[in-house]
Design a protein that fits this description.
4 helices; elongated; mainly alpha; 72 residues
Length: 72
């Protein structure tokens, strides 16, 4: 998770998500990055539902963050 969020996600992806919110292509690519990382960690494709769930939940959480007030 740390690698996916802090090393494999450029700042421009976050900025684009902040502007375009759910319409940002990078939001979904970021979810795919997390799904692929989960797949690598699990080491098997037989857990594809888990991998898809992790990717989808990550997209939903980051989408929610894009609508949050940055001032807290």
């Amino acid at each position: 998770h740390v690698v996916g969020d802090f090393y494999l996600q450029p700042a421009r992806w976050i900025e684009d998500r902040g502007v375009k919110q759910w319409r940002s292509m990078w939001l979904y690519i970021h979810g795919i990055v997390h799904a692929l990382a989960a797949w690598c960690a699990l080491g098997t494709l037989s857990e594809w539902r888990t991998v898809a769930f992790i990717g989808a939940v990550h997209v939903l959480v980051d989408m929610g963050k894009s609508y949050a007030d940055p001032r807290g």
